[in-house]
């Protein structure tokens, strides 16, 4: 799956290579109802050709008209759309009643812009997660490595620069097919994850079909060991079959995956932890990375309810939210 952010950066890169200035827009924050989350990107040319979205269509027309009029020729601008008193321009409101803050950067067709976009492209393709530091006074920017999860957009403590996270598209590897796995794949696709389901059992793969989900006919442990996990990857085992689940966990803890979990009751999880120590050779630090039982304690019973608890917990960890903050 080609992440929408990757499409935006690749098109911006193409335009800069062709000698065109590019306006790169980032959603900074939203208040109330808004169809696009902070960190969402849009790239545009002066003539209005663009890729990506800021609001799902609510404000793009106004932004592109103002871009053609030369409003955003400064290296950096911050604008607010919505129905608040300080919205600018005041006449543009969001039909959903929300408020939207947007960062607009003008990237001239020069080597510095080209190099910056090339590094962003590499990050989105899976090289490593990065943080873009964009100085509010003058629009200077630089990159640093991102050590963990957190909000996609943050203002530094002094209020001088934006910290914008960028990295590989979120990936979910599901070890083994089951009713919970099917529901989990459907939820994850709706949340924008790249979803890969691995199961060597032909009979289980025969009637498994979820739109947009990649199906691999290999042991999940083999797929995970092949280098399939990056820092934006979650690995879940949802079959109750130790031959699939345990091996997947043994390999997953050797990767940089940000979330690793396996389904089972408290008693089953305790027995699994002992097997992983005894047969898998895992130490306490490795076992501590595995969330078992998996998911939030929602009292889930049905496959859909369990899948909801799993994906909610993955999203919680991805956003850097502790359990006691829920």
UniProtKB/TrEMBL annotation:
<dbReference type="InterPro" id="IPR052698">
    <property type="entry name" value="MoCofactor_Util/Proc"/>
</dbReference>
<protein>
    <submittedName>
        <fullName>Xanthine dehydrogenase accessory factor</fullName>
    </submittedName>
</protein>
<dbReference type="InterPro" id="IPR027051">
    <property type="entry name" value="XdhC_Rossmann_dom"/>
</dbReference>
<feature type="domain" description="XdhC- CoxI">
    <location>
        <begin position="15"/>
        <end position="69"/>
    </location>
</feature>
<dbReference type="InterPro" id="IPR003777">
    <property type="entry name" value="XdhC_CoxI"/>
</dbReference>
<dbReference type="InterPro" id="IPR036291">
    <property type="entry name" value="NAD(P)-bd_dom_sf"/>
</dbReference>
<dbReference type="Pfam" id="PF13478">
    <property type="entry name" value="XdhC_C"/>
</dbReference>
<feature type="domain" description="XdhC Rossmann">
    <location>
        <begin position="172"/>
        <end position="314"/>
    </location>
</feature>
<dbReference type="Pfam" id="PF02625">
    <property type="entry name" value="XdhC_CoxI"/>
</dbReference>
């Amino acid at each position: 799956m080609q992440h929408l952010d990757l499409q935006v950066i690749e098109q911006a890169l193409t335009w800069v290579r062709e000698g065109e200035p590019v306006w790169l827009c980032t959603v900074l924050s939203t208040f109330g109802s808004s169809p696009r989350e902070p960190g969402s990107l849009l790239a545009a040319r002066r003539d209005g050709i663009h890729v990506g979205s800021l609001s799902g269509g609510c404000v793009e027309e106004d932004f592109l008209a103002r871009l053609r009029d030369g409003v955003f020729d400064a290296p950096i601008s911050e604008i607010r759309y919505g129905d608040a008193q300080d919205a600018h321009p005041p006449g543009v409101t969001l039909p959903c009643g929300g408020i939207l803050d947007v960062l607009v950067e003008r990237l001239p067709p020069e080597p510095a812009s080209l190099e910056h976009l090339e590094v962003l492209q590499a990050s989105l393709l899976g090289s490593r997660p990065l943080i873009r530091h964009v100085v509010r006074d003058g629009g200077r920017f630089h990159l640093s490595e991102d050590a963990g999860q957190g909000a996609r957009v943050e203002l530094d403590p002094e209020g001088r620069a934006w910290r914008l996270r960028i990295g590989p598209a979120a990936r979910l590897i599901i070890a083994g097919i089951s009713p919970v796995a099917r529901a989990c794949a459907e939820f994850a696709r709706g949340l924008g994850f790249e979803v890969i389901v691995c199961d060597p059992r032909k009979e289980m793969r025969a009637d498994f079909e979820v739109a947009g989900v990649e199906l691999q006919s290999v042991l999940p442990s083999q797929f995970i060991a092949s280098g399939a996990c990056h820092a934006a990857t979650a690995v879940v085992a949802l079959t109750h079959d130790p031959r699939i689940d345990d091996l997947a966990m043994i390999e997953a803890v050797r990767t940089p995956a940000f979330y690793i979990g396996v389904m089972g009751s408290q008693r089953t999880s305790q027995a699994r932890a002992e097997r992983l120590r005894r047969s898998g050779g895992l130490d306490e630090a490795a076992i501590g990375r595995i969330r078992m039982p998996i998911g939030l304690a929602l009292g889930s019973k049905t496959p859909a309810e369990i899948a909801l608890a799993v994906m909610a917990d993955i999203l919680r960890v991805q956003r850097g939210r502790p359990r006691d903050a829920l």
